[in-house]
Amino acid sequence: MDANDDGNRRIVLAARPRGEPNADSFRLEHGPIPEPNEDELVARTIYLSLDPYMRGRMNDAPSYAAAVEIGEVMTGGTVGQVIASKLDGFEIGDFVLAQGGWQDYATLGAGEARRLDPSVAPIGSALGVLGMPGLTAWSGLREIGRPEPGETLVLAAASGAVGALVGQIAKLRGCRVVGLAGSADKRAYLLDELGFDAALDYRAPDFAATLEAACPEGIDIYWENVGGPLFEAVLPLLNTFARVPVCGLIHWYNATSLPKVTDPTPALMRAILVKRLTLRGFIVFDHADLQDEFVTEIGAWLREGKIRYREDVRDGLENAPDAFAGLLRGENFGKLLIRVSDDPTVGG
Amino acid sequence: MDANDDGNRRIVLAARPRGEPNADSFRLEHGPIPEPNEDELVARTIYLSLDPYMRGRMNDAPSYAAAVEIGEVMTGGTVGQVIASKLDGFEIGDFVLAQGGWQDYATLGAGEARRLDPSVAPIGSALGVLGMPGLTAWSGLREIGRPEPGETLVLAAASGAVGALVGQIAKLRGCRVVGLAGSADKRAYLLDELGFDAALDYRAPDFAATLEAACPEGIDIYWENVGGPLFEAVLPLLNTFARVPVCGLIHWYNATSLPKVTDPTPALMRAILVKRLTLRGFIVFDHADLQDEFVTEIGAWLREGKIRYREDVRDGLENAPDAFAGLLRGENFGKLLIRVSDDPTVGG
Question: Which ipTM did the prediction report?
Answer without folding.
Answer: 0.87
